[in-house]
Amino acid sequence: MPPAWPGAPTPLGARFRTGPDGVAGTNFALWAGGAEAVEVCLFAPDGTETRVPLTELTHEIWHGFVPGVRPGQRYGYRVHGRWDPWTGARWNPAKLLLDPYARAVDGDFTLPAEVYGHVRDWPDQHVADTVRDERDSAPYVPKGVVVHDDDDWADDRRPKTPWADSVIYELHVKGFTRRHPGVPEELRGTYAGLAHPAAVEHLVRLGVTAVELLPVHQFAHEDHLLRRGLRNYWGYNSIGYFAPHAAYSASGTGGEQVGEFKRMVRALHAAGIEVILDVVYNHTAEASELGPMLSLRGIDNRGYYRLQSDARRYADYTGCGNTLHVVQPQVLRLITDSLRYWVTEMGVDGFRFDLAAALARSMHDVDMLSPFLAVIAQDPVLRRVKLIAEPWDVGNGGYQVGAFPPLWTEWNDRYRDAVRDFWRGALPDVRDLGYRLSGSSDLYAWGGRRPYASVNFVTAHDGFTLRDLVSYERKHNEANGEDNRDGTNDNRSWNCGAEGETDDAAVNALRRRQMRNVLTTLLLSTGVPMLVAGDEMGRTQGGNNNAYCQDNEIGWVDWSLRDEPWAAELLALTRRLLRLRHTHPVLRRKAFFSGRPQGADGLRDLAWFTADGAEMTEGDWYAPTATIAFYLSGRDIPGRDARGEPVTDDSFLVVLHAGHEDVEQRLPGPPWAEAYELLVDTAREEQEEAPGVVCRGGERVPVTGRSALLWRVRPNG
Q: Residue 42's beta-bridge partner residues?
């Protein structure tokens, strides 16, 4: 092959185009600060490698145009430089490296000894990472694939759902469809499977507005899992920030996965559903200094990763062995280029940032004026999409719930903990619960933030499912192969009287009621609710609260549950609550409650009541109680509709009773209401229809132990 032509330093990555004199080829550009030489390595179908030196260097970017290289070409890089781990220099040209900007990846990471930059089995393990391994890794590592992108998305219509109207549904691309009977076998577990009408229909009928996909960036499996015969299932081990994970493709891995992902996005958009990606820019799959050399470590270890004062070691704010050095301009560029690519070329609508506090660190401390947050705030593409922070990391000062700036929403773990504690009877009082149910103004009422800054959740991929939350008090992670040491011990769960599955009818009835209680609380709270795939029909993981490596029936959604009468009723209740939320703006407010009277009659936009129907006093908030009721007034909702008209709605009374004994609740009389209609009673097993009970204001009504009621104020008494 002739030498590469000079080409251009931008854009980074491999881009197929027409070069000088109309010659078709691919421009390769790689930032490799400090490197001494770079070769792009082209692989034939039989594995034959051709190395082409990139001799042009512009602002630390090595680049060249290679004529004749077309889409589908498999490639990688070899980067030459010093081997001096004591100063953080770890160049090793024997290792084929994945292009950080590769838009498709072909092959799997199996992690034999050859893919490590150091001699992994060196007798003295204390210095093993300092001994360079000279074996060629090319036969053992995946390759990037040149992709031709000619898609302008002219036929796509983004839903653009306002934050206040959003309902998020967290799902795993493979796990959601792997057992779905309506999805053809050959499509299950893939992007095409998620785009199938049978999968989309469930989402539409459920009433969610967005799917939040567990990581779909190309990721690798950790060595300790492979040695135990397991695999990384969740995908929080990224190695390719531009490439859709190839294993989720039904159409092929030679670039076909890109088109399949786009078709999935289009199908979801056509159904009115946004696509949010869970992204992992805080660390990569290269792990600690004892990890493999797959990409960034061999391109410029010191430029991409945060190192300790002992430059052999990595600063680890993630618990995964390394942390990307986001303060470095080239790292910030990698991340923002990736984000813009997924928005503009792949069609996604937003991102949930794993361990976002790690990205917000400046040199050491979390800094809400950090370069990462500043760049996002001014970027004309990124500031317009949905941005969700997981507002913590594992480093000192990493817990930052409520601290992220405007534009951002946050996973609110304080909501999760308060709701779990209330329904298991562990709250000392209801002060914290009151804030959580009404939008967490104590956390978010600053800087112009709104109630939808709080993503309310009770369960997530990490932890118990909803069914397990009411069935187990202890984690049961033996299948993970770590002697049940992994996963949190702080589950805030209650098994209702028996650990795990049981034939006790009373225990099972209580568990079903507790699931209905939690879902009702979540979907009637102010803020953005997030459901986890399968919780709406009682999915179980058998008590495993850390199923990150369970790519099997433990981690997959069990669609046969829909045939169980109790699960069908749970699904019916979820759908009904989401219809109510969609219909009534008072349940999805865009502004915080004031708690002040709205007129001469003293009616407030939010009022709290004790079981005897009296408004709660300050002392009531500090007193132990198992019952709380709150009134949501639809009379004067802040803001106006699209035509500038005032927004009005029905008013509602929500009663939550976590005590085990039945009680009576006095319904507030005038001015609150002359009469109420019962819409939801979680004590009932049948949930397809509202109970239809009507009671007068001031009347005492029975409340079953551990149940929730939703009353609508009857407009004409």
A: 50, 75
